[in-house]
């Protein structure tokens, strides 16, 4: 055991990190730390430039319909989706550490935005769009603060199964929320029962032409996703080209349905269209800051920040790993914070690093965040020049692109996996999924986090305690219930397989108390501390209490194999002096010393 | 490592416990389990009877003024204190497992009762006393439910330092709340700033005679507590007799001040007295059950239950240890639950096992819960026959007994101790003390619990990770920063000193990712899992992700010294098949196999 070295070396690492801020080239390092662009920008060359440009063109084509669609999902005017992709991408390019991450509106965050704003204002009102700015501002400020105070670890409390369950349930909610556009009816609600109930109520008002467009677009997009690529490959098209054609599928759907509406005058027959979108660069906007609004949005903004950060960082890390690049989670928070503040002041809404767009960017050969900057330019051109083209674009087509995109998020295999691997993880996933569906995204994700923390605490609050004895002829001690071991009726040795802390301190007290009360022969208790990484103050007081109570029963308490950092702490207090027995380096020495004939 | 046996043996223990309900003498065991009286009752004899009777007389004398005083503290009519001591003691005698625990009103729970009811109704109104019944009912129902569902572990989340801080702050609050009775003024508030502010406002209305009585009684009781016993012992009085006289101090104060008020007619000069107390056995009462009331009281009732349970069980265990007796925490919950339900239906208020009264009971020689039953009879006689005697008892005297009793609870040494031992425990205590004083008991204890859980999660979310190498000539592997060890530049071995779970899964991912990105020589990573007691689903997915990312970097991942239960779980999923490297029984074997020349 090199336990005694652990605290010191851990501290020394921390010190090293802290010093790097002030050392020799301190300012340059600090600059590079908070401005990663200063790092990759210096070595930028023509090769990287042309790769980045190609990637940007591909991503731009993909993003135009996607941005409009996610704005629709968030309940915002379509241009908000474009605006939310421009300034945020540029700001992330300056402050972010991932070379390939593409920042902008994403499905889950758009859904959460709709859920948050639905409590504040009616969709389509000025107040609604303004509140979206405030939400982006709050989210940006929180991300930035977490980054500056290096609080990125907060995201760790979202367990993988909870995230998986949440994403699956969100996918279902999103798909359900788009059905009204496919049917061409007005329906409402942010939870599944209310959405479905409202849809059912309005079913009679279904617009048949909208329904035809919606179903055709959905079927086409499913086919593009599943059947087109294999077909093209069979026809001898190269993999890259086949991939590109597949990615352009939504654009084709947009073109065809827009043309159909325009040519056949379908908007006069009740097909809802995108309509007028202002031809403009992103406007400068000021998020409203009334105290009531801030108070109402602070919790949603926090949840959006955390969920967005988790989604973004896992994409960034997956892509960085492919090229052995580093991602700094706290700097990522700063990058995402800046991106969201950018969205708040340029007519956008909360954004994060999206999975699909980032993968496309990476696969298209993006080498640096400059690719993102070029994408922003492409989208800015689209916002200025192309918006009249989407006037006749039916909302049903956008809904179809959303439905096809999010159904790939829905994956119930996590339930089976969790069931097989760990029942407590299963409980957390199931609760997350069900509550997200029936009580909304905020309740769902909060309950998932709360439950997984409680279940973790519950597990560690009832640690496994093994009664051990010596394997004959060796110095090894093993569980008496599983191995043929030698024990002495006067000596009880317990090995606790968990750090001792407040949640299990009393458990050990009870366990020992009951064990000893049952067996009056016992004169010595040895606690073998191999697996005890920490003893907090509650556990220390429990040990003191155990020591005192055992003394009153005439039983001596010994410890063996205490780790260095634990020993360091115990030496700060009186416990070792008060201990009725001794602390032994090894369990073997302990038993030898205690059972030695007098 | 005999890890593989651990889950199984743990399960087998659980099975044994579960089976005992159904085995041979099943019904008898079940009866004894839920009715401990069936156990000790059968061997009750004349010796135990006379010991119990003596203890009961002493405790009864002590409890009469104490019960009146605590009722005053809770803001209830004095008889409520007596009633709360009668049925609850009897019910605990039937259902509780402690032989010496004395159940009834205690200081901290009385304070919490006052804080909870203060939000519902005015002190002294009918609604206030009725709400106290509802509070006792809710608390009893919760304790009973926790006992039946074996949820006693919930109390473990109150860490020792948080309890210590809470008790100290409560002591200060209680003492402050009694100052108004010493001054003879009307003041209000349930937090220190409001209490002191209100007192200061009414300072001009101080009743001088009340003040004289209050100060004299307080000084006398302090002297009895600190000076009387040594004096008696010096005068040659035996230790038992000296002890008894000391315990009777409050009774003397009650007698003298009551006589003074009666003889000098002080109640006509503004000295507040206890006044008329009905001469009656505990009445049958029905706690009001309106939904509003239940909703308002459910959280306070939960906190009262938990705090009461923690106080009670620690007293019970301390006393049981002295005689090697067993306490069953879940049965204790049932006992306390029954006691509180008893209080709810007989005009009382929430009760628990008190420290002072239990120690007196134990020291006086109580052998079985029958001592409690006799005490109940004594108090019932007092309620019927003695209440007219306390008509002239000044409230200031009762306040003095409370102040002197609770000041012994105030102990700031926990702050120093926590500061020395663990800064995170210190933060939790300090927050508990400050918030209890300035924001009230409910906020204080909740914040303490929340903070200690968060700090624990934070600690385990950043586990110590040591990079280890082989100590030359041995099979031992130690921290490379602390020992001269042999390493191979192609092989990185990390030892994580914590179970892997969602809160630290990403930490390990980041750590490894950054470590490998820095060092392109590395071709093999070994995770030495000696201290990993658990791998939850999030950590499993992190390991899979690490495996996948390392593979993309051309690095092989191996595991060594995986514990049995962890291995069992890993075998349920595909991870071990997907692992690019191998699982080695020991770290030594791993390094030997990997670095073996080809």
TrEMBL record, chains A, B:
One of its GO terms (biological process) is transmembrane transport. Keywords: Membrane, Transmembrane, Transmembrane helix. The chain crosses the membrane at residues 53-73, 128-151, 157-175, 206-224, 244-264, 297-321, 333-351, 371-391, 398-420, 426-455. Pfam families: STAS, Sulfate_transp. GO terms for cellular component: membrane. It is found in: Membrane. It comes from the Bacteria. Residues 481-594 form the STAS domain. The keyword Glycoprotein does not apply. PROSITE patterns: STAS. It is a multi-pass membrane protein. Its main location: membrane. InterPro entries: SLC26A/SulP_dom (IPR011547), SLC26A/SulP_fam (IPR001902), STAS_dom (IPR002645), STAS_dom_sf (IPR036513). SUPFAM superfamilies: SpoIIaa-like. The keyword Signal does not apply. This is SulP family sulfate permease. It comes from Silicimonas algicola.
